Amino acid sequence: MSHAVADASLNLKTALRDVAVEVDRQFDLLLQVPADPRARLYEAMRHAAIGGGKRLRPLLTFATAQLFGVDRLCTARAATAIECIHVYSLIHDDLPAMDDDDLRRGKPTVHKAFDEATAILAGDCLHALAFELLADSATHADPFVRAELIADLARAAGPAGMAGGQMMDLAAEGSSFDLATVTRLQALKTGALIACSVEAGAILGRVPVEGRTGLRGYARHIGLAFQIADDILDVEGDEAAVGKQLRKDQAAGKETFLTLLGLDRAREQARLLVDQAIDHLRQFGSEADLLRDIARYTLERDR
Amino acid sequence: MSHAVADASLNLKTALRDVAVEVDRQFDLLLQVPADPRARLYEAMRHAAIGGGKRLRPLLTFATAQLFGVDRLCTARAATAIECIHVYSLIHDDLPAMDDDDLRRGKPTVHKAFDEATAILAGDCLHALAFELLADSATHADPFVRAELIADLARAAGPAGMAGGQMMDLAAEGSSFDLATVTRLQALKTGALIACSVEAGAILGRVPVEGRTGLRGYARHIGLAFQIADDILDVEGDEAAVGKQLRKDQAAGKETFLTLLGLDRAREQARLLVDQAIDHLRQFGSEADLLRDIARYTLERDR
Known about the structure:
Two copies of one chain form a homodimer. The first copy, chain A, is globular and about 50 Å long. The two termini of chain A are 27 Å apart. Chain A has helices spanning 2-30, 39-49, 56-65, 72-93, 110-113, 116-135, 143-157, 162-172, 179-204, 213-236, 239-242, 248-252, 257-261, 263-279, 289-300; strands at 103-104, 107-108. The relative contact order of chain A is 0.12. Chain A is mostly helical. Chain A has one domain (2-300): Farnesyl Diphosphate Synthase (Orthogonal Bundle), CATH 1.10.600.10. In chain A, 71% of the residues lie in helices and 1% in strands. Chain A has a two-stranded antiparallel sheet with strand order 1-2. At the A-B interface, helix 2, helix 6, helix 7, helix 8 and helix 9 of A face helix 2, helix 6, helix 7, helix 8 and helix 9 of B. Chains A, B: InterPro entries: Isoprenoid_synthase_dom_sf, Polyprenyl_synt, Polyprenyl_synt_CS, Prenyl_diphosphate_synthase.
């Protein structure tokens, strides 16, 4: 048993590293710096996109796509498109008018390393690049698949997803949201893109909608578990390890899972969500062990 | 002759009005305000998107699509998606860190009427909505058509299009760009989306790439003519009619077509570009008269 656990953590580590290398390679290809006045914009995108982050979302796409034997290059391109959206959202969220953060992934945020205008534009460019990547026939030969990937990502990024959640988050300051509202906020702000990362693997694998119920349940549960772990990290984490400023929610007086549940119940709730996520994978055998390991990892990570 | 000209201007006026009504209707449907903390975000999007602007880009899509008998609802949705990108770019360009404008289309800019965070997010949401609209099967039943529309719009919006042009524009301050660089800047900043508006009509009409040469030439030429007219308006226009602050390029010491060519040569150049644009339509008969009228209109508009 302890041997199996050690193996699992090894597999997860290998997968995390492989995906990080592959996503960096994709970003490097995508973001070649042109010899014209746009160079600074590309440098800013590279600063934000390359060599940082856990790459959790791409990992989820890879782990799901491998269940269905999807071509690795197709998966890499779709996963990078999703990470484009994640990175753009981090750049914009860090802006002075939003969360006003100086540090991200252990480096200065884009508006600190460059300037605000460049940060806004770098985010906008990564946003557009995500859809350019998905619309390209090199990502998938079948336009049905491409159109479905795009529809899913656009929904996850827009006002009914990530951007809507960020808007609720800004409104959270000074409001006293209840548990249902915080849950809804987080389902939009982080949950939608995590769900999309899993769904993209299934879309690439041509799994029909009615065959995705288990994977969707898995994604919904790890999305919430991930956010509760994030709230706990915000209170208990080490800033150097996490690579960004912590304890900001507290300072802003925002309600979180932690303020609403207390530390013990929040931990318990996160563990329960991970168990439920894993339970949603019961239709799969050992080929879904990486997804199971990722579920557990959402709680154990230190950044 | 003068009767024909009067008719043409009447047709153009009717088309401008019809398209404006249709685009407003689409935005109204798309941006129904939800009864949750995202309400403010939707209000901000409505403020920017509804009831303003010339709707030149949607008009170009309609005028091109009607050459090929495209369904009006498909056209309306694609045209609205393109206008989403245009409106988002205006919101972000107006931000304090960018062009710092207080007035747009005769109304306070979004960050003035709301706040900066809401303006950034409203732009981001309209950006995502554009692709959500195009990816939806209600826009076109054929996923090939949807994927091509998306690829074209994402390219036009991204670093090789509008956002890249805006980056060059920010670098223009304090630089002394030559005519070739200003032409390239404007081809990206405004030209790419104008070209995409025409191309979208052809894509919806299932015109193969090799059949679009004339329309592409037309679009490239009116894009530049439009920008020269914009530079002239910036110097000679009436702020109340134009609905935004003018004479900012001068104040920032930026090179424009006007500073590089002088007023007389700039006017002459714009007229030449319109003639060339119209010449590119020679394969079409009277069914392309609206496109011809739009070409002339780029010079005659007062806003």
